[in-house]
Amino acid sequence: MARPDSLAADDLTRRLYPDVVAAGGLAEALTQAATGLDLGEIQKDPSDPWTWTGVPSLADGREPYTINLGAEERWFIGQGWSRGAQLISGSTPSLAETARAANAWRRGRPLAEIRAAAPFIEVSDLAFAHERGPEHAVTVKWRLVREQARDAPADGVRALVEAAHTEPRLRQLFPFLSMWSLHFSTCTGYPFVCPLPQVIATGDGRF
């Protein structure tokens, strides 16, 4: 991709994204594609107008819907985060579909409605749980961690996770596995707050 000294699109960008180049940048092309939609003041990087842009959200807690260009194929890659959790993501070759997803996210539409408006959008079970509330995110995350532990290559990880899950006080925390060690957070979004020690299965029945 072009660097700040020239701001000129390279040959690959011109071939894959002629509409973006013709408009003068990704933000400008997105504005043109958003017929009848209000995307607000679209964010852009003035040093490199081709590869990134962000659509600000009107909904409390939602970060801007960000869009990146695929480097080898024509893809507009979007994602939306809220309170440290990625709630939506997806890729499409259509800038008009990208604009519809960004508009629905900006207006604070429920995740199911965003996916209906832009079918390329993916929403995980954990994202839907985050939408319902932190306690739901904790419950779903425990299910996912228990499923992940069943396939762990290290001995004792499954036993470790199952033992932790039986403890009511730990079950109220947001769990996650990192390098097959078990961590507990008091919040459900990144950056996690982890006041408790991590626990590692040593493989000999000890932890």
Question: What features would you describe in this structure?
Answer:
The protein has 207 residues and is of the alpha+beta class. The protein is 37% helix and 18% strand. The protein is built from 9 helices and 8 strands. It has a 5-stranded antiparallel sheet with strand order 1-2-3-4-5. A 3-stranded antiparallel sheet has the order 6-7-8. Helix 4 packs antiparallel against helix 5, helix 6 (125-132) runs antiparallel to helix 7 and helix 7 packs antiparallel against helix 8 (157-165). The longest helix has 17 residues, at 134-150. It is elongated and about 65 Å long. The relative contact order is 0.10.
The residue fraction in helices comes out at 25-40%
Radius of gyration: 21 Å
Indicate the structural class.
alpha+beta
Query: Kindly state the mean pLDDT as a whole number?
Result: 93
Strand content: 15-25%
Stretches where pLDDT falls below 50 for ≥5 residues? Answer: 1-6
Mind summarizing the main beta sheet? 5 strands, antiparallel
Principal-axis shape: elongated
String of helices and strands: HHHEEEEEHHHHHHEEE
Keywords, please?
207 residues; alpha+beta; five-stranded antiparallel sheet; three-stranded antiparallel sheet; disordered N terminus
Describe, in short, the structure shown.
The chain has 207 residues and is α+β, with helices and mostly antiparallel strands. The chain contains nine helices and eight strands. The protein has helices at 11-16, 18-23, 26-33, 95-106, 111-117, 125-132, 134-150, 157-165, 168-171; strands spanning 43-44, 52-55, 65-69, 76-82, 85-92, 174-178, 181-185, 199-200.
